[in-house]
Amino acid sequence: MAVYLVTYELRAEGQSYDRLHKALASVAHAHALEDAWLIDLEASAEMVRGWLAQYMDDELDRLMVVEVKGDLAALNLGRGAEAWLQKRV
Q1: Confidence of residue 74 (pLDDT cuts 50, 70, 90)
Q2: In Å, what is the CA distance from 48 to each residue of 6, 37, 42, 68, 80?
Q3: What is the DSSP letter of 53?
Q4: How many CB atoms within 10 Å of residue 82?
Q5: Cβ atoms within 10 A of the Cβ of 32, count?
Q6: Domain that holds residue 13
Q7: What highest taxon heads this organism's lineage (predicted)?
């Protein structure tokens, strides 16, 4: 398994992103910041990007997927995200 930081800017006005959020919540995850999730998944970053892109507007929205490895530091992450991350990295 690999831990990824998924961060995005949802820029398409009036679009519902419920399906994106449900997809992220469907795997082992921690919702670290408003527009940033940590997910634990057996896939490449490219595969994660492709999976999530189907729930976004490919002309306007922005998405970044980065594998998290090794040294890390955080401050005030939401919903137990820091403890979740410390267990996995």
Answers
A1: confident
A2: 9, 12, 9, 14, 23
A3: H
A4: 18
A5: 22
A6: 2-88
A7: Bacteria
Count how many Cα atoms sit within 13 Å of the Cα of residue 3 in the half-sphere of its side chain: 19
pLDDT at residue 25 greater than cutoff 80: yes
Confidence of residue 85 (pLDDT cuts 50, 70, 90): confident
- Is the Cα torsion angle 46, 2, 64, 29 positive or negative in sign? positive
| Number of domains into which the chain is organized | 1
Report the C-alpha gap between 15 and 13 in whole angstroms: 6
Q: What is the CATH number of the domain that holds 73?
A: 3.30.70.240
Place of tokens 């057996």: 42
DSSP alpha helices (H): ranges in 1-89? 18-25, 45-53, 81-88
